[in-house]
Design brief:
Elements lengths: L1 H24 L1 E3 L2 E8 L5 E7 L3 E4 L2 E11 L8 E8 L7 E6 L13 E9 L2
Antiparallel strand pairs: 1-5, 2-3, 2-8, 4-5, 5-6, 6-7
Length: 124
């Protein structure tokens, strides 16, 4: 009975997993990305337009855009970018990972003073 249930569960989940894998493979790498920076103490904001591999400094943060991708069938849709964010007061990066433009809180920078989020990938 347990084997039958496990087989049924696998059979039902596998098509969804394969579909998700197919859509992940249909992403396009963008040469640039646009990010927004916020200083929560002063209220200052700024947008950063970075090329992949480029860094920008705002306040104590240095933000590097490692990669920027978007769905091939929807360039204005769910862009996601890999960022490395360093603080001059910390020895290790304060954030290193993927951010999704449509869900910035899903994988957010956890910093007491600053917020950074992805706005979009820029297409050529």
């Amino acid at each position: 009975m347990k084997r039958a249930f496990a087989a049924l569960t696998l059979a039902l989940c596998l098509p969804g997993a394969l579909a998700a894998q197919d859509s992940a493979q249909q992403s396009v790498e963008a040469p640039r990305g646009e990010l927004r920076w916020l200083d929560k103490v002063s209220g200052a904001t700024d947008d950063l337009d970075l090329a992949v591999g480029e860094s920008g400094t705002r306040g104590r943060l240095t933000i590097r855009l490692d990669d920027c991708r978007y769905p091939a069938d929807n360039p204005s849709g769910d862009a996601y970018a890999h960022l490395t964010i360093s603080d001059t007061l910390a020895t290790e990066p304060v954030f290193q990972g993927w951010m999704i433009a449509s869900s910035p809180a899903l994988s957010a920078l956890d910093h007491s003073r600053y917020d950074v989020w992805l706005l979009r990938c820029k297409t050529p």
